[in-house]
Amino acid sequence: MFYICSMSYEELYNWPKPPSACPANMLKKAAHLTPICVAGLVILRQRPGTAKGVIFLTLEDETGYANIIIWRKVYEKNRRAIISGRLLRITGKLQHEGDTTHVVAEKIEDISDLLDKLIFSKSQ
Known about the structure:
Blueprint (H helix, E strand, L loop, with lengths): L8 H5 L21 E12 L8 E7 L2 E7 L1 H6 L1 H6 L2 E11 L2 E11 L2 H11 L1
Parallel strand pairs: 3-5
Antiparallel strand pairs: 1-2, 1-4, 2-3, 4-5
């Protein structure tokens, strides 16, 4: 289930949810290297010069944050979505390293148009 911050349960029930998106607060419960899908608002994009082309994203949903690692080849295939997407759905492998949990992206979808549908449905 996918949530948007600061919404009541009734509002969430009517939200157009991406299928099979794992809430951020459930990521620690999934096993290492599990194929997983997360979705959320992009709150941080980083491309450190020392990271050899790796991109780091942080997504936020109603339950918390999901850290995403994007390797150069995946970035090249999904550049537009990564740079301009406000709401992304990421499919990849979950990794646990100590207390850190992150998703290594394999597929990235820009689902920002769902934000516009939410605004449109609220104004009617």
